[in-house]
Write a structure and sequence with these properties.
Oligomer: single chain
Largest sheet: none
Radius of gyration: 31 Å
Number of strands: 0
Order of helices and strands: H
Shape: elongated
Structural class: mainly alpha
Number of helices: 1
Strand content: under 5%
Length: about 55
């Protein structure tokens, strides 16, 4: 008995899952006016802002 037997031909199965067209949801209006640059604030500016707010 040979250990290496040829595999039987597998039948062709039709794909049961069909890809659907995907539409991205509309962008929320809040993003329309957003600058794409990240808002980076230095630690010094941040600390100055805090002291200004606490002194009010």
């Amino acid at each position: 008995c040979s250990a290496l037997q040829s595999l039987p031909d597998l039948p062709e199965f039709p794909l049961s899952l069909r890809p659907e067209d995907y539409e991205f949801p509309g962008t929320d209006s809040i993003w329309e006016n957003v600058d794409c640059q990240p808002q980076i604030q230095s630690l010094k500016e941040h600390l100055e802002d805090e002291t200004e707010e606490s002194s009010k």
